[in-house]
Every structure is written in structure tokens, then in C-alpha cells.
């Protein structure tokens, strides 16, 4: 592509936007609204998923051993657990440690009741492995594997919690996909209408260009540039606004609802926009390109 041709294409694309100011502003505003809603929804979803992931990380599978299992056999089981891809971490809890934790949880403030057991350990033989996973949806397969290991007497799992969290993640993914698809369709439709209006305004000019032998690219490119610029501008504006709003919203929630600080941990703005910024810009440019390209192919026969 010649530099002069490239410059002409960009110039005409900008000119098209300026010529059709009302339609262009409407398309940019709609694109901005779509990207803004997408950004808001994405920020909410990614924070919800972060909270769910925190909950998942605290859900453990507990593995107990047969009576008479030696420490070497327990260590061997630990080595097999460590090799499983589903496992993020695990730790060994001896019978003595289990009893100390039990006393703190159930005899807090009633030390006399705990002391009445003397040196007896009611949880003797209850040593176990606590196993944590990155993805709780893999719990059932891991439990099946653990139940088949030698010297394992029983495996305790939080099946209801696992199913609830798995279903919630699946629901969030489906809803996210549907909303994003709707937003994309609306934006493509509006950009298509804007480009179509530009084609109608320049109908005579396009006819003259075709008569004097202008190439397909030379005729179509300015309208595609117009769609891309509308998509880019329409994506950049809401992303800048969202970046400024996100930090303030987190600060407001933290100050206004202090009790949530112990329950929720919001992702920092840099972490959210590390993905949202490039995805939002690419989405805007992509929607602009698709909308203009489809319209140009349909309404300009060269």
C-alpha cells in the first residue's frame, strides 16, 4: 500500500465520520454504552469469581487412614496425593494436632471440660490429610481416586458445597456469554447503519470512482476505516471512565460497608484492567470492522 493511498483512506474515513456527525455520535455513544456495560459486567463477574475461588480454596477433602497404618504408609499416600494434578496443596494433621484444634473450637472458655480428658486423646487414630484443590469441580474424580488407595479408611468431602460452587460458576459463564453476544449484535447493527448512511451520502461520488476505474480496496477502505474508528473511540471512552470509577467504587464500598472487608477481597484495578483494557479495545475495533465490512460488501458492488 502506498503511503498516499493509506493517508487518503484514513482521511476519508475521518471525513465520513464528520459528514455523518449525528449518526456517528449515535454509533459511538451506543458502542460506548455497550463497552461500558461489558466492562461493568466483567468487573463484577471477575470479582465474584475471585470470591468463589477464595471459597473453593478453603473447601478441603479429608482423608482418614485404616487402624494400624504406619507413618511410612501415610507418607507414601501423601506422595501419591502430591502427584495428582487436581491438588493445589495438602497438609498432614496428626491425631494430637486434631485434638488440639478440636479443644480450641469446642471447649473455648471451658478449659475444665477439656482438662477432664487428661492425657487421653479421643481422636486417637484420626490423623488425616487435608487436601485443597484449584478447581472444585474436579472433586468427585479426586475422591474416587482417593477411596481406591490402600490404607485409606474413608474420605470426607463437601459434596453440596462443591456442587453449588460448580453450578454457580457455570451459570455465571452462560449469563456472561449471552450478555456479551447481545451487546455485540446491537453494536454491529448500529455501526452498520452508520456506514450504510455514509454510503448513501457518497453514492454519486462512489459511482464516479467506479467509472474511472477505482479498485475495490480504494472504494471500500474508507468505510471500513470509519467503522474501525467508531469502534475504537466508542471503546476507549468508557474504558477511561471505568478505570477512574473502579478504584473509587472499591474505596467507597470499603469505607461504607467495613464489615464486608472480612468477607470480600476486591481485585485491584490494575489486575482487572490488565485483561479488560486490551479485550475492550479489541472488541470495539473488531465490532467496528465487522459491522462496516459486512455493510460495505452488501451495499457497494464493485
UniProtKB/TrEMBL annotation:
The keyword Membrane applies. The keyword Lipoprotein does not apply. It holds the Pfam family FtsX_ECD. GO terms for cellular component: plasma membrane. The chain crosses the membrane at residues 21-45, 171-192, 223-246, 266-290. It is a multi-pass membrane protein. Keywords: Cell cycle, Cell division, Cell membrane, Membrane, Transmembrane, Transmembrane helix. Part of the ABC transporter FtsEX involved in asymmetric cellular division facilitating the initiation of sporulation. Belongs to the ABC-4 integral membrane protein family. FtsX subfamily. This is Cell division protein FtsX. It comes from Eubacterium ramulus.
